[in-house]
Here is the input.
Amino acid sequence: MRQTIALAFIFVGVASLILFTSTDVFTLFARQHTFVNISFAGNDISCVDCHHRIQNELNNSAFHKNLSCEDCHRFTGTGITFASGDEASATPGKEAHAAYTPRCLDCHGGSGTWIDGKFAPPAPAFNETGYGSDVSAHKPLVKQSLDYNLSFGENEACLACHTNYSIKFGFKRPEYFDFYFSVSGSWDVSSITYGDTNTTPVNKSESGAKHEFKAINQIKCEDCHLDVWNAANHPESNAYGSTKASHVCWKWGGSFKGRSYSNDDPMHNVSKVGMTPGYENITDYCLSSCHKPKINSSATIPPVFENTVHAAYRLSCYHCHNDTSTYTNAFWNKPKNGWDTPGFHGDQTVEHKHYPGIYGLDDNILSEPLFLHAETCISCKRGMGVPSKHGSCGSCHRDYEHPSVSEDFQAYTEPNNTIYMDSTEI
Amino acid sequence: MSVRNLLLILAIAFVISFMMAQTASIFAGQHVWYNLSANGSDVPCEKCHADVADEMNVLTGPHTGETGYGQFKCEYCHRFPPVQHRNTTFESYTYASVNSSDVIPGKESHAASTVPCMYCHSGDRYGVRHSNCATCDCWSCHHADTPQPHEGRYTNNEDCRRCHANAHTGDVYYIPPAGGFNLTTNASDTGKNASHISFVMSAIENETMEDANEACIACHTRMSVEIWFNVTTEAKITVNNSYTQSYSYWDVEEITPSNYTNYKEVKGE
Here is the structure.
């Protein structure tokens, strides 16, 4: 007890002594009177002092890590006046003080921009008035990003593909569509109705870093369009055991009715992904086989390819496989390792659509919305392999060549693309 | 304690008490009064705010002599005089002041106030006012201004030059407005693209410091700042393959930020 009292006396004594001898008042926020000299040329206040994480992201980035913060965030090409000054003069900011959040197209629009000795190339198609042609597959995302405030301008669309920002997509489509297939006389498609909306989730899961820009070869179509890839690549057999049921994987060979199908490497063969010769990866397959093929500059090409697009064309099968007979050697066929002509059933003779007797099928479909153009092709090919006295082709050609039975069909959209004939999966 | 010892202590105490000629005050110097009758502030702020005085010596920058005319006096900011070119939402204060002929009691403040940075930096004038005139006799011309600069409180060149002149360029300039946040009186100061505008606006709402000072000081001084960022790492994008009788198109129905994450940045460690 006596020891405690003694300590208390000592404590009070020392505290009193400190209080008595202290003459300074301590400022609440230390160093608030240490003003940074901003009278030099350029930005004198370190962005990184408060934004280390952004710098770390840029250190892991394929692009822009050789730019300064000011190159992008005090970019003067937009007419924005930033606060600036040096010993001789000072300019107050107007639209921004220290920095702004740039639109990617501020630098990558128009004809591109030189920044600090480095060239920012224009973003093809999106640098055009109105973001270019409607056949540019991602134009709707770019254009409609303007309506959202996650970032400035069209940046949401740019970030989605070009950075490690994660995206949870929800792709909404009619789950299926019904149609009536009439085979009296010429083939005819009628009574098309749509099922309820189905949402397919696709998660592009990344680090989440918006300042980690991807190298172009790191951008993968399937990251965002896994549902489409799943539709294209059905490794499993269909209901009837056909391993050729994937909508774009038709491996043809042999002969049929006197016609030779000798091309074993059709351009859309998904089994050629990761092979040599073939497609380097899924993205190479998506682009080279369909959505941005290598074009023979000396050949006549489908008009759609005369447009400039950014990443991919918005296409259906009919853009190439139609009754135009002049697209000879128009595209580079990677698996074949040579120029190719869009043909029907993969042959090299000019027979681009269904043969004349059943043109009604194509004409009816072509009058429908674009997404049905490919869906019908996809669904029928998915249905290949129905046991038939005529072999796998018999699911459609049940009367050897011309169908004779009118049927109701129900075709499911991505990612399943199964097809039902009178409620039976085919 | 024995009676003998007690008597001994009492005797010594009596002797000491008897021998002492002076009474020692507890707080020495409390009767040494400052003469307030001169112009300006006659009470040394540094006496109590030595740490601030030390800080002012750490860097040579704005307010601390980068123009070659020495540091600002405390009173320039903390007994701020009426500034003509400013956003008038920042009111002027009346401080207690005394000189040889006048006594003005304080109203909003007695000796000093903490000051909004924007009080002086919210005008619409900027740039060089007089070229090659840093050594001119300021008051010989400006005494005739209507109204007089700072209501005539500063009449000596030293005070004028510390704020308005640059010894290196020889120029006399306006105090630069902190434009770009839509807080100055310049109509073209919209701040519509300013990255830090939400920081500034939140600082204005916050009562820790005056006005937007938290934001100003965070960037323009070496004060240590701990910043918690809450950022989105993911977006939810919903697109609908919409269609008409003959046309289909991808309609973006939703772009919503999600999966926020917190992280800390510390400036000035």
